[in-house]
Amino acid sequence: MKSKKLWLGIGAVVLIVLCMGVAFLATQGKTDYYTQIDNRWVTEIDPHGAMNYEYNLDAYDETGKERDITFETSKVLTDGAYLCLKVAPIRGVVTWAEVQYDELPEAVQAVYSK
């Protein structure tokens, strides 16, 4: 009986540690990706919360590595604007902000060269 309780206790501790690890990873390690708005790739979605539109765009990290990213917005964004997307593991895009061309990393500027 004591060994069964011991194993249940160990299992509970392991489960708690795993949950804490997943929660930690979900809130850490945001990576910046940069994209340029192209309103040909926006779709209207069924509203949930304040989100009414979904963008699916190519984005680039600071080294110029490409990644397809999908994110939602409450409005149609300015066509041609540059964005910095903060992307977290599991959660995806958590925030975005408009940036100027001069604020893009050099590798990203090369992709969007004027």
If you had to describe this structure to a student in words, what would you say it looks like?
The structure is a single chain. The chain is an alpha+beta fold. It has one domain (29-111): Protein of unknown function DUF1093 (OB fold (Dihydrolipoamide Acetyltransferase, E2P)). 28% of the residues lie in helices and 40% in strands. The chain has two helices and six strands, in the order H-E-E-E-E-E-E-H. The strands form two sheets. The chain has a three-stranded antiparallel β-sheet, with no helix packed on it. A hairpin with a 2-residue loop joins strand 2 and strand 3 (51-60). The longest helix has 26 residues, at 2-27. It is elongated and about 70 Å long. The mean pLDDT is 89.
